[in-house]
């Protein structure tokens, strides 16, 4: 009776949520401008607001004139003042949390999350599940066990501001009605050694009635492989009631074949787009491509065409100005005090009614040593199209330029770790090159003009990317190895692991 009641309540909540969501889907551009002016009004007496004349901002254009595009280094002086206990710097009062993330040029980054911002992190995930329940007309998973592969929920304090990984911060806000169904245990989630942690998660979950599993694809695969190796079974044989997998952090498509192989039976997948800076989008229809952009969740969005990003005078577009199938650097202004903040993600709109996006890459993760500007979306789509023509499976790949080869013309070098290698690697390589040429005309011109030769493939040994991640202290949590680079910093280290 209790299980029936939980399902019934979940279905009622989901249907109401869908009705409410229709409003923001229809009114997104106007809602966005109102949201910006509300954020500016709230923060007008902060240090940042006074320095940028928020009192005289009455439109998007006013805002764009006064507030320049910023990255973490630009906002770091303000964040350092917040870390020293000062209030009313970027946002009113002090943040409720810092989400601590790994930086490259800045070391660790401390992303502020305000009391107003944290609820939207929870609501974003809830909304993704409610859309799924309403679309499916089924909420069976609420009666089983659920798992999220996450960072430690143990937090430190900086002048009273709770600080930890985003997933650890969010763990303190999971609704009580879900806590008793949630795995792994608090003690296991606190473990810092990722491999030991996954082993313990296997122990705690292998005999449970798992119905929902969530995490970033590489670490889901690691968890599933350990289960499969231990029991000699597919995941759906071990968890016959598994209904839903929720993913985020990276593009799911390159991992789809491997996930399907490990699962062994059709399983619904819902993709999400969360980050420390906010919960941006989720797959509102799991039968279709694209993620619904959350335009009413405390974040004002701007978009800069990728080809002009970083150039003086680059135009900043609002939702009503974007075009379909173009790549844009995504810029955020949030209710946690990030102002015109370049998060580093590149998105592509595939629908404007409602606004749906694909995450097509990172502003710093591209290959353009020869002017071709290949982005992750193009490389991943080329790989996907190639794999459809061969009985092959990959674990991971990384693309880097080879500007000074020992012989022959410069080229792209792809480090590809195969789960199942193609019978003829040369044919596979030619097909991959052809697929990339179809997706990037600049690369095609360089090949046609004999500036570059066709891409070359280097085969790392089994578990090479796993070993590389461990060697760099990037194993586990939300760490991802960039798939594209414009230098050979990663490639040169991967050379150690080649066959």
Describe, in short, the structure shown.
The protein has 499 residues and is α/β, with parallel strands linked by helices. It is built from 18 helices and 20 strands. Strands 6-3-7-8-9-10-11-15-14-13-12 form an 11-stranded mixed beta sheet, with helices on both faces.
Mean pLDDT: 88
Radius of gyration, whole Å = 23 Å
Number of strands: 20
| Molecular shape | globular
| Major sheet | 11 strands, mixed
| Alpha-beta content class | alpha/beta
User: Which percent bin holds the helix content?
Assistant: 25-40%
List the uncertain runs.
Answer: none
* Measured distance between first and last alpha carbons: 58 Å
Q: In what order do the strands lie side by side in the largest sheet? A: 6-3-7-8-9-10-11-15-14-13-12
Residue share in β-strands: 15-25%
Number of DSSP helical runs: 18
Question: Any overview of this molecule?
Answer:
The chain is α/β, with parallel strands linked by helices and 499 residues long. Helices cover 37% and strands 22% of the residues. The protein has helices at residues 2-26, 28-42, 47-51, 60-66, 72-83, 118-136, 166-170, 176-179, 186-189, 194-205, 217-231, 235-238, 256-263, 376-387, 425-439, 441-448, 464-471, 489-494, and strands spanning 97-101, 109-113, 145-148, 156-158, 161-164, 182-183, 210-215, 244-247, 268-275, 278-282, 291-293, 299-305, 327-334, 341-352, 355-362, 366-367, 374-375, 393-402, 411-420, 456-458. Strands 6-3-7-8-9-10-11-15-14-13-12 form an 11-stranded mixed sheet, sandwiched between helices. Strand 18 and strand 19 form a beta hairpin. Helix 1 crosses helix 6 (118-136), helix 10 (194-205) crosses helix 11 (217-231) and helix 11 runs parallel beside helix 13 (256-263). The longest helix is centred in the N-terminal third of the chain and has 25 residues, at 2-26. The protein is globular. The chain starts with a helix and ends in a 5-residue tail after the last helix.
